[in-house]
Specification:
Structural class: alpha/beta
Strand content: 15-25%
CATH class of the largest domain: Alpha Beta
Number of helices: 17
Strand order of the largest sheet: 14-13-12-15-16-21-20-17-18-19
Number of strands: 21
CATH superfamily of the largest domain: HUPs
Radius of gyration: 26 Å
Helix content: 25-40%
CATH architecture of the largest domain: 3-Layer(aba) Sandwich
């Protein structure tokens, strides 16, 4: 993510040192010598010029900036730069007041601002690094206490403290909900925990990386394997091929393929067809851990029961789009059955390998779970990730709805950046179904949250409407999970 930092001395230089590697920093200063002096702090892109100039800011990449911090020694220039950034829709803007008496001017502009070098750098650091809650130094600056929020994709999540081998830091406290835990070696860290880490200030970057980096977990956070049915050559070319692609490009550990039990097939010709299908499957799934499951009865029912009996993190099925009454009834019935499994369901439509993934940016529990799955898939498949925030028409919603949409898009960008995934933001006014339908025409995979209780013919919700209209593959991710 790109951050524009105005001011290469004082608090600007301190902030430059403390920002994580997730930020691609563009440092702007009118003094070339100040930019040169900052080169030893960390890598950045230097821009010589007046940071309050629209021309200079555009040259520095204002249009693609995820954040702008004005930290020069001229409050008038800081305020002008912040005004330009705010009007340009930069998600995160903040200022450092050189003269404490000017703080009120920053507040009137509607942007967060602080004063004093070190305090300023710490406050902005926490603002721009949402997985950190607060930090402070003590012991004459030789030690640092930092509070982190454990994210669902954090590599330390699920680990016991004795597994975190560290010589220069310790976890002093864990806040889980309202309960304060004094940790022991057997204490296991969970998503949502707020942990206080005390360690050497010299080891600050490594401590931050340990607790704020991310790793791809989908679909193994739901189960280790992917399951699909095979009943025809068409299945092999479509949903089975997509299931194989998913296993190869995600952390999934294997593929379970359900097929008709040969003992239930009386026709010799049909037995031969099945045998050839399974032989061809073995060739196409070369290198994939493959498990075959013969089924005597209804194969779809057997597929839907898989999450109860095995560690299955994704079911792969097919569901043709359609907007007729019959199609809507079929979609509602299918989704209600899928929702009851509690597992993610991929509705394969032959759009693999995934070149682009689309996900709505929503700050709800369901929206965040779907977004994290989309981020994981984008990372492991190297697909582009597009985040869309749909805002109702202006006569229905006001500017507050637009700001909420921008905040949601900014959150998605920040979470994706932790895993090195860039997000293309799309904030659109209009009917959410129409907006998603339009954008899905340009992507391979659409990721949505699974309706908790399924859908009905007359109350299909956004998911039901979208499934009937889009041609891309669709991944439905349940959110009623501890994963």
């Amino acid at each position: 993510m790109r951050a524009l930092l105005i001011g290469a001395r004082g608090p600007g230089r301190e902030l430059l040192r403390r920002l994580s590697e997730l930020w691609d920093v563009v440092l702007i200063d009118s003094d070339p010598t100040a930019l040169t002096a900052a080169e030893g702090v960390r890598e950045f892109t230097p821009v010589v010029g007046d940071g309050s100039s629209q021309v200079v800011l555009n040259r520095a990449g204002l249009q693609d900036a995820a954040a702008l911090v004005a930290a020069s020694f001229d409050d008038d220039k800081n305020l002008e730069a912040l005004r330009i950034a705010r009007d340009a829709g930069v998600p995160r803007v903040a200022g450092i007041a050189y003269d404490v008496s000017r703080l009120e001017d920053y507040r009137e502009l509607g942007v967060p601002a602080v004063s004093a070098d070190t305090l300023a750098a710490r406050s902005i650091e926490v603002l721009m690094e949402p997985r950190r809650v607060i930090s402070t130094t003590f012991a004459d600056g030789k030690a640092e206490a930092i509070e982190f929020r454990i994210a669902p994709d954090a590599p330390v999540r699920g680990k016991r403290l004795r597994q975190l081998h560290a010589d220069t830091w310790v976890i002093a406290a864990v806040l889980r909900g309202e309960d304060l835990i004094i940790p022991k070696g057997t204490t296991k860290l969970e998503a949502g925990d707020r942990v206080t880490v005390v360690g050497s200030a010299a080891d600050f970057p490594r401590i931050v990386k340990t607790f704020t980096s991310g790793e791809s977990r989908f679909p193994i956070n739901f189960g280790r394997k992917v399951a699909v049915t095979l009943d025809s050559a068409e299945d092999l070319e479509s949903k089975v091929a997509e299931a194989i692609s998913v296993v190869r490009t995600t952390p999934a550990e294997g593929l379970v393929v359900l097929h008709r039990d040969p003992e239930t097939i009386l026709d010799v010709g049909e037995q031969d067809v099945l045998a050839k299908l399974l032989d061809e499957l073995g060739l196409r799934a070369d290198g994939v851990e493959l498990s075959l499951r013969p089924v005597k009865g209804d194969m779809e029912a057997a597929l839907l029961s898989m999450p109860e009996s095995e560690s299955v993190g994704m079911l792969v099925a097919e569901l043709e789009p359609g907007t007729s009454l019959l199609a809507r009834r079929r979609i509602a019935a299918k989704i209600s059955r899928y929702a009851a499994t509690g597992a993610p369901v991929l509705l394969a439509r032959g759009r693999h390998p995934y070149a682009a993934v689309l996900v709505p940016a929503r700050r709800t529990v369901a929206g965040e779970v779907a977004a994290r799955a989309a981020i994981d898939i984008a990372r492991t498949t190297s697909a582009a990730l597009i985040g869309v925030s749909a805002v109702a028409p202006a006569f229905v919603s006001g500017q507050e709805a637009v700001e909420d949409a921008r905040e949601s898009a900014a959150w998605l960008r920040e979470e994706a950046a932790v895993q090195g995934v860039q997000v293309r933001r799309r904030v659109r006014r209009g009917n959410p179904v129409r907006v998603i339908e339009e954008l899905s025409a340009t992507v391979s995979l659409l990721v949505l949250s699974m309706p908790t209780r399924g859908i009905s013919l007359f109350r299909p919700g956004i998911t039901g409407h979208v499934l009937g209209r889009v041609a891309s593959s669709v991944l439905l991710v349940p959110h009623d999970t501890n994963s």
